[in-house]
């Protein structure tokens, strides 16, 4: 497998340098609306953007809007899940027939993991949601969701801190009730992010665990797409050692998978105990690292390689395959206390002899967080993020379209 290179390709340079001001993806008529944690997926011709939303102090609901390949809204924003409980932290994928959305429903009694299908026409096919796993461990990070073959895969931390997964059929049936064990938690003090991706005939589930301030590790396990069985025992370590390694994400691509994470091995700052909460400090000088995992489950880049260095923290990466590499969106130079910064893009290629280059800003405001991206069949990328700069008790979903001919204004939707 060729050595990866972090580059700014013609695709990124020709377009990302001319991002315009950030248009709204989802808006609310009320100034007190709190919109957050967006996710997006494409079926090749359109994108479905989902997020959670609430008036200040009220339970959160899930909302969605469709965007065509030119970035134009298809219809208006609609409810995906609205209940007396808190429906929050969505993920979305395309399963070959419909979009599938996974999220947490939190009440005073418990936290449940649900999914629902959304048709390309914008109809919610499972209006009450389908419970995948009841009474799971609460988290401030979304569950993992990926689609491939004839099913989708959801992964999560259970009440004991172990990682479990279940396949979901295209008919919305839970194929592995209760979830199959993917990996236990050898460092039980902290459970962080869990992510999943599909390549060829299998999934890869990636998760990070830790015991602040010294013990951190990122693990991965391949999941057979036909049986749902874990292929790598309790999982293989992707990155471990002194210094925090957290906010892990994964995408399929050339030869297997690319795993990325925020890495604090070179930082003099100690990570605070509640690192999976946006309420607490994000340390400075944390770089974005990556490592490839082959289809055979071999970590190709032991120790990882630097994707995005910076003076602040490089956090909240989202990535997807484009051509012979991966397009990434991340929060660049995040503030130590809030975790917010500018949304930027960069590119990791498997092609040789390409010189490294810096990330390219998508937004100029330092109040952005939680970017997500999806790419359609023609290579046009939709990048969305949470904007916390719209005023007191206000956050909005903004975004922009990356194409070979420039930036398309998305315009406000959901009014």
Can you characterise this structure?
The protein is 2% helix and 52% strand. It is mostly beta strands. The strands form seven sheets. Strands 1, 23, 24, 25 and 26 form a five-stranded antiparallel sheet that branches. Strands 2, 27, 28, 29 and 30 form a five-stranded antiparallel sheet that branches. Strands 3-4-5-6 form a four-stranded antiparallel sheet, with no helix packed on it. The chain is globular, with a radius of gyration of 19 Å. The protein starts with a strand and ends in a 7-residue tail after the last strand. It has one helix spanning 10-16, and strands spanning 5-7, 24-26, 33-42, 46-55, 61-68, 73-81, 86-94, 99-106, 111-118, 130-133, 144-148, 151-157, 163-169, 180-183, 190-199, 202-211, 215-224, 236-242, 245-253, 256-263, 287-294, 305-308, 313-322, 325-334, 342-349, 360-361, 368-375, 381-387, 396-403, 406-408. It contains one helix and 30 strands.
Task: Produce a short descriptive summary.
The chain has 1 helix and 30 strands. The chain is globular, with a radius of gyration of 19 Å. Residues 7-22, 271-283 and 407-415 have low confidence and may be disordered.
């Amino acid at each position: 497998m060729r050595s990866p290179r972090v580059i700014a390709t013609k695709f990124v340079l020709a377009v990302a340098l001319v991002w315009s001001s950030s248009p709204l993806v989802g808006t609310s008529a009320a100034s007190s609306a709190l919109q957050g944690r967006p996710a997006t997926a494409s079926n090749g011709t359109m994108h479905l953007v989902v997020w959670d939303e609430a008036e200040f102090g009220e339970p959160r609901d899930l909302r969605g809007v469709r965007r065509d390949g030119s970035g134009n809204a298809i219809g208006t924003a609609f409810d995906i899940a609205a209940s007396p409980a808190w429906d929050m932290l969505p993920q979305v994928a395309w399963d070959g027939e419909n979009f599938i959305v996974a999220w947490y429903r939190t009440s005073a009694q418990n936290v449940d993991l649900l999914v629902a299908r959304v048709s390309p026409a914008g109809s919610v096919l499972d209006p009450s949601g389908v419970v995948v796993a009841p009474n799971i461990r609460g988290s401030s990070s979304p569950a993992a969701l990926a689609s491939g073959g004839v099913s989708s895969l959801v992964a999560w931390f259970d009440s004991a801190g172990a990682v479990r997964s279940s396949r979901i059929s295209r008919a919305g049936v839970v194929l592995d009730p209760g979830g199959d064990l993917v990996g236990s938690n050898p460092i039980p003090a902290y459970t962080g992010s869990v992510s999943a991706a599909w390549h060829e005939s299998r999934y890869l589930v990636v998760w990070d665990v830790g015991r602040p301030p010294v013990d951190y590790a990122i693990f991965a396990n391949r999941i057979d797409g036909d049986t749902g069985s874990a292929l790598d025992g309790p999982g293989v370590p992707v990155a471990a050692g002194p210094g925090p390694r957290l906010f892990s994400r994964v995408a399929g691509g050339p030869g297997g998978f690319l795993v990325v994470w925020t890495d604090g091995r070179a930082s003099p700052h100690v990570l605070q105990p509640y690192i999976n909460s946006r309420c607490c400090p994000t340390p400075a000088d944390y770089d974005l690292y990556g490592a490839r995992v082959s289809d055979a489950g071999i970590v190709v880049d032991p120790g990882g390689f630097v994707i995005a260095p910076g003076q602040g923290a490089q956090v909240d990466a989202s990535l997807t395959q484009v051509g012979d590499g991966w397009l990434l969106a991340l929060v660049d130079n995040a503030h130590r206390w809030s975790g917010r910064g500018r949304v930027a893009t960069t590119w990791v290629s498997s092609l040789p002899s390409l010189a490294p280059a810096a990330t390219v800003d998508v937004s100029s405001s330092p109040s952005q967080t939680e970017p997500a991206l999806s790419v359609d069949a023609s290579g046009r990328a939709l990048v969305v993020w949470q904007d916390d700069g719209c005023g007191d008790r206000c956050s909005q979903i903004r975004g922009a379209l990356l194409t070979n001919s420039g930036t398309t204004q998305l315009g406000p939707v959901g009014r």
